[in-house]
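Sample A.
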Amino acid sequence: MNISVLSCEKCSAAFIPPKYICPVCRHDRLTLKPASGSGTVYSYTTIHIAPEKFADQAPYHIVLVDLDQGLRVTGRLTGGTPRIGQRVECSRVDESVYWFDPAGQ
C-alpha cells in the first residue's frame, strides 16, 4: 500500500503528515506525494500493559520503520514478532496510525 508524504517545494525536505509548514525551512508550500510504504524495522517495543482503549489487544508490537524513501515512521506490527532489519510493508493507515505487515504476507 502506498502512503502519502509531504515534500517542501522550496527545500525538497520530505516528512510525514500532518504538517502545515516545512520543519526545515519554514516554507508553507507543501506537496503531497506517494511513497511505497515499504521499509525495515529500525527498532521496536512490545506493549504488555496497554491503555484501557487497547487493553484487549495486548501484548502488541510498536515498530519504528525506516521507509525506503529515507523517512522514519512509528506504527503497529500486525503479525509475528518483530526483528531489527526485518522488511515490512504498510497495509493500512487508520486514524493516523500506520499498520505494518511482515514483507511477503
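Sample B, a different protein:
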Amino acid sequence: MLRPKVPTNPTPTGLAIPPTVEPTATVRHAPPPTPVAQSSTRPAVQLTPGTALALVGGGAAVVLVVGAVLVSMLLAVAISGASVAICAVVLRSLLASGRTHR
C-alpha cells in the first residue's frame, strides 16, 4: 500500500532520427568601438543653505519620531510586565491565604 510505484517508460512509436545539423557560417566580429567620454546633460546637484537646512530638519524630525515610537513600545512592554508581576503576587497571596484557613 505504501510502496512507491515506479513509472514505466512507454515504448517509442517509431524510429528516432536525430535532426540534421547544418554547418554554421563563419562570422567575423568587428572590434568594439572605443568609448568616447560624453558630457553629462544633467545639471549637477547643488546644495544651497536653505536645502541643507531642510535636509537637516527633516532628518531630525525622522529621528525624533522613530525614537518616540521605540520608547513608547518599550514603555508598553514594561507596563505589561509589571502588571503581570502584580497579578502573580496577588494570586499567590490568595492561594496562600486559602491554604492557611483550612
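Observation for Sample B: The mean pLDDT is 83.
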